[in-house]
Design goal:
Layout: E1 4-9, E2 12-17, E3 34-36, E4 45-49, E5 79-83, H1 103-109, H2 115-128, H3 134-143, H4 147-160, H5 165-171, H6 177-187, H7 195-202, H8 210-219, H9 227-239, H10 244-253, H11 258-272, H12 280-293, H13 299-310, H14 318-334, H15 339-343, H16 348-366, H17 372-381, H18 387-399, H19 404-414, H20 421-427, H21 435-446, H22 449-460, H23 470-478, H24 483-495, H25 499-507, H26 518-528, E6 534-535, E7 538-539, H27 554-562, E8 573-579, E9 584-592, E10 596-601, E11 605-610, E12 614-623, H28 635-647
Antiparallel strand pairs: 1-2, 3-4, 4-5, 6-7, 8-9, 8-12, 9-10, 10-11
Helix pairs in contact: 1-2, 2-4, 3-4, 4-6, 5-6, 6-8, 8-9, 8-10, 9-11, 10-12, 11-12, 11-13, 12-14, 13-14, 13-16, 14-17, 16-17, 16-18, 17-19, 18-19, 19-21, 20-22, 21-22, 22-24, 26-28
């Protein structure tokens, strides 16, 4: 059982270990299963220990676990631990002290240091609906010694239907902002009818701390007020911009007024200090506000938003222009629209400002001396400004000697465009690209139907191995909405299995039915697999991790062992590098620093080659795992190996041996 110490952080909390590297409660008993921890009436913690050999939800339990002989062991057992501070004496009277308590005693219990006492008293007050205690509760709101007691009294009055506007106004002036936050919450249904109460709530905005700011952001949407509420919500967005929860609260509070909030936000920001414009919270706020405006698809709102973005034309406000443009552009694209559709209807002055902004973005993206983050942000905007404006720059970024991050960003930015040159440019030199680049190229090719057909042409000509696509892209192609593309893809996948692999797989199907010994399979694994794979403490992870085999079927494992090239993660293709002095290296690219490439080879060996020393680098289009393991592993050994991969975690002797059987 873990314990954290919480400290306020924005609208929520940060946490740290109660004791570094020491759990609150731990046990050497492997059946120890703590599942619940309520407070007790005596102030103690009560820990419920389910005490079972196996604790898994049936919905998420792998098939083999459901057949464990010890699955229900412990079903007739369980423990409850009572946890108290050292030296604490038990007061048994607290267990029944509220059962027959008088109304006055229940009110007194609202001031208890014990949360169970306060919450139980609050529940009983609500259930009994005894309005005679209204005066005592009102007195507690005014003079309760703790903020918890004053909060409980407020909600008790609300539950009795006796909470007055006057008492809420009084609570809004409480010295504790936690009490004030609850008073704000209780005021919500009254704000649209009581102007005085609304004024009191609005007056809290400037002095609010982070949690109160969050509550105000949620509640002010109920004010149903025009400029005053909008300005205060904008102020909350500005002051709370570093907290994602506060930003979300503002946007959910009055979504139909987001344009007005955005306008007020920019006005207040520029009146304070434009140096704040580059702060991440401020740019996040602008991005999120414009992202809410776009999907509403109201032309007047979108055009006004574009005008506001165009007006951010000083150098200090450029980060806001980028953030706002990106938020609006992405949200419109998700609705099948583009910024260009709305930009054409803007006044000439705004259109000219946007053209100037576009040129500034193009120049920043093209300039290799621009800071990397600023350059990447600029490239991301080029996907929204039109191919006529951004196309040549994006092409030069893809073809030039730029960092991998810049090239990938340019590929992502160019993918929404349909210029016929894009496909050929992306495919040029595909075999020499790194795994990250190849993924970006494939994604850009598949984002457009014409380019998808071009990619399928390359696969048909064996210029690209179909295994390069990987499982997710392969699945998308086979479910493509274009029936012709779907048909072509299906034919290519059907033809992709070599005849010899089909025969071997057919011959080895019998291994799935043989009686298997996972302990013998462990020996097979040690002899054939440990140079590239790791299970438990055995082997080296060069290739994909196969240790978590619970959701992998025996059929899946057999196919991947005997036909390793059928579907390969792009991170695990074999590459060959030839250096300028003729040395040849083969392995998986495990690191690309920009200046060098690191290959990982069997047995975990690594070699780093400077890019300036590389004469040629090319993907071999196949897995590093060799084809032909059937030559060294017969069907019985294959059955044993698969059983070991499936059941290795059950071979330590801590669970019954009979569950370690072929799966």
């Amino acid at each position: 059982m873990h314990r954290d110490v919480l400290t306020p952080m924005g609208a929520t909390y940060d946490s740290q270990y109660g004791r570094d590297q020491v759990e609150f409660i731990a046990s050497r008993d492997e059946w120890f299963r703590p599942v619940n921890l309520p407070n007790g009436p005596d102030g103690a913690l009560y820990l419920c220990d389910m005490y079972r050999a196996v604790i898994e939800h049936p919905q998420f339990m792998p098939a083999e676990l459901k057949e464990r002989s010890d699955l229900n062991d412990g079903i007739d057992r369980g423990r409850i631990y009572r946890i108290v501070p050292k030296g604490t004496k038990i007061d048994k009277s607290v267990y029944t002290s509220l059962k027959d308590a008088t109304p006055e005693q229940l009110v007194a219990a609202l001031s208890s240091e014990n949360a169970w006492q306060r919450e139980t008293a609050s529940r009983l007050i609500f259930e009994r609906q005894d309005a005679s205690i209204q005066p005592q509760l009102e007195q507690l709101v005014s003079s309760g010694k703790t903020e918890q007691s004053r909060i409980q009294a407020l909600w008790a009055l609300e539950g009795l239907g006796k909470l007055s506007d006057a008492l809420i106004e009084k609570a809004l002036k409480d010295q504790s902002q936690r009490v004030v936050a609850q008073a704000v919450k209780l005021s919500e249904p009254r704000l649209s009818q009581n102007d005085k109460l609304k004024t009191e709530v609005l007056s809290l905005v400037k002095s609010a701390d982070a949690p109160l700011r969050f509550q105000l952001a949620i509640s002010l949407g109920e004010a149903k007020d025009g400029p005053s509420a909008v300005d205060q919500l904008a102020s909350l967005m500005l002051d709370g911009s570093s907290d994602s929860f506060t930003r979300a609260a503002v946007l959910s509070s009055a979504p139909e007024q987001t344009v007005e909030i955005f306008k007020s936000f920019l006005k207040q920001l520029q009146a304070r200090d434009t140096k704040q414009a580059s702060q991440s919270g401020i740019t996040d706020a602008v991005n999120e506000m414009t992202a809410v405006i776009g999907p509403r698809l109201k032309p007047e709102e979108i055009q006004e938003t574009l005008s506001l973005i165009a007006g951010l034309d000083s150098e200090a406000l450029l980060p806001l222009q980028i953030a706002g443009f990106e938020g609006l552009g992405n949200s419109l694209r998700r609705r099948g629209k583009s910024i260009a559709e709305y930009q054409a209807k803007l006044p000439d002055t705004d259109q000219q400002k946007l053209k100037t902004f576009y040129q500034k973005i193009v120049d920043t993206a093209a300039n290799p001396k621009s800071p990397t983050e600023q350059r990447l942000n600029a490239i991301s905007i080029l996907q929204f400004v039109g191919f006529d404006t951004s196309g040549e720059t994006l092409i030069s970024l893809i073809q030039g000697r730029n960092s991998q991050a810049v090239k990938i960003a340019a590929m992502s930015a160019i993918s929404p465009y349909s210029d016929p040159r894009i496909g050929e440019i992306l495919m040029d030199g595909f075999a020499t690209q790194t795994p990250g680049m190849r993924r970006a190229i494939l994604d850009a090719m598949l984002s457009n139907q014409d380019r998808t057909n071009l990619l399928l042409d390359a696969i048909e000509k064996d210029q690209i191995k179909i295994s390069e696509l990987g499982p997710s892209r392969s699945s998308s192609l086979q479910r493509h909405r274009n029936p012709e593309i779907k048909k072509r893809a299906a034919a290519l996948f059907a033809a992709a299995i070599p005849a010899d692999r089909q025969k071997v797989l057919a011959d080895y199907q019998k291994s799935l039915k043989l009686k298997a010994d996972p302990l013998q399979g462990k020996l097979v694994f040690a002899k054939n697999c440990v140079t590239c794979h790791k299970i438990g403490e055995m082997g080296i992870n060069v290739a994909p991790d196969i240790g978590d085999s619970r959701t992998k079927t025996p059929e899946y494992l057999l196919t991947n062992i005997l036909d390793p090239n059928r579907a390969i993660d792009a991170n695990f293709f074999s590459y060959t590098i030839i250096t300028i002095d003729g040395v040849v290296h083969t392995g998986i690219i495990s690191s690309d620093s920009g200046a060098s490439i690191t290959l990982t080879q069997p047995e975990g060996k690594t070699i780093t080659v400077l890019k300036d020393e590389i004469e040629e680098m090319k993907s071999n289009g196949v897995s590093l795992m060799p084809v032909g393991l059937e030559k060294t592993i017969d069907p019985q050994q294959m059955a044993d190996l698969i059983s070991f991969i499936k059941n290795w975690r059950y071979l330590s002797g801590q669970v019954p041996k009979e569950i370690a059987k072929p799966q």
